[in-house]
Every structure is written in structure tokens, then in C-alpha cells.
Amino acid sequence: MSKTATELGSDQGNWLALSIGNSRLHWAWFQGELCKQVWHSPHLDPAAREKLIHAWNRGELWDGGLEYPGPLGDEAIAPNPPLWIASVVPQQLALWQSYRRLNIITLADLPLLGLYPTLGIDRALALVGAATESGWPVLVVDAGTALTLTGADPEGRLVGGAILPGFGLQLQSLTEKTAALPAVTFPGTLPPRWALNTPEAIASGVVYGIGAGVRDFISDWWQHFPTSPVVITGGGGEMLLRYLQETAPEIAKQAIAMPDLIFSGICCIKQQQSGESLPGPRFTPLY
Fold it and tell me: Which UniProt keywords apply (predicted)?
């Protein structure tokens, strides 16, 4: 349901953002441009969606009967908050079509040039968020389920990018598509490059393989845009930063870590469509 700028502007005090990813749902609660809370949850089914809407009606962020999404504050929200959604999973987006205060963000809403129709809305919003924080040109490295690199030039025109399987997806494929390789989780530190056991060999191949590819893309990007910031986001961003700090400290020192980058983009589009004159979203840009 579309709203006028006046109606949208009246909601600026309290609203929710939802980024529907391939593996999880990413949520944020805003008061105006201030991000009060970020959390993550599994994909929902229709029954879970109804429980969540009832929780919002009670002024709660989450329903206690649903799978625990992580630490949430106990501060109450205003009932029936506006919901701004960006989705790469049509089936999950369809669950929210009946929510009466729904606002769906599409590529047509974004102030970017040169977009192609199948560009993921998450990649495009990350560019908007990164440019809001750092200006144009900018390169975004999103280490999510799929690891993506997306860049835009000084005029805000899409230069292009690349997509490859992310850390978790590569680990999962080795476990599921081979007969003898075990499931592996990453340790808190980088694995040894030259491993002497199978789990560490898998971790080494995934981390150093992905990391080397990202380094190469960043180096090439800086050949074209030497002063461009590089913004790192996504669930695998912390591991990627560890790799860069150890193997390419000159890149790591110039990289900007923003785990909640897509919410910066969503907030910018909401402000734009609401006719709000605000200083921009406020986040803590650290892992």
C-alpha cells in the first residue's frame, strides 16, 4: 500500500527495517534515523509471521514463542510500526504483503545509475548505504551467503561486480558433495595456511582462497579509483577482515567495516521517500 510523503513522514519516530536474505532475516528497529537494535532470525512461515505481528501489536519487538533471534532489549515499541522491506527471496516477501503498513523497496526507488534488472536489491542498497557514509566512488564487499563485490563510480553509476560462494556456502558444499570430508566451522583466528589435518586444510582453502580473490579485486578497483573507500559487510566480514589484517595490512587499514550496511541504505531510501530532512542513519561501524 503506497502512502503520501506526509503520511510516511509521520512514521519517522518508530519503524522497522527487514532485509530478507538467502539464509536469514535481518531486522532493525529505528527511531527516526537512529538504529536502536539489530537482530537476525531464521526465515518465517505464515504462522510465525502472525505471532510476530501480534507481538508488535503488544509493543514488543519479538514473540517469545518463536525461535530466539539473539539478544533484544526490553524497551517497548509503538504498536503497528511501519515496516520497510528489501528482499532477495520472493516467497518470504510474499508473507508480508497483507501487512497494512508495508513499504517494499525496489531498484526503481534507488538513486543509482546504470542498474540492470536482475541486480540484487541487497547489493544496490549496500552501495547507497556505503556512499552515504563514505561518498562516491565506493566498492562494497558483502561477505554473506554469496560473497559479492559491487562498485560505483564518482557519479553514482554502477561499474559492476562479481558473485562467488561465501565462506559458509563453500564449507557446506564440501561437506555435502564429498564422501569423506567433515563439517567444519571456523575458529576464532585464521587457520594455518599449510594444514596438517583435514578440517584445518578445508578451512585454509576456503579462507585463503576467498581472501586472495577479494584482494585481487580490491587491487584492480584501486587501479581505476585510487581514492575509493572499500566497505566490508556481511556475516563473513569479520573473518575477511582478519585475513586482510594478516596478509594485506595496507588494504585492511583503508577498509571500513560496517556489519549493518544494508540498514543504512534502507534508512536513506525511507528518508528520501518520506521527504525527511535528517542527517542520515547513525550506526556503530565496527565488528
Answer: ATP-binding, Coenzyme A biosynthesis, Cytoplasm, Kinase, Metal-binding, Nucleotide-binding, Potassium, Transferase
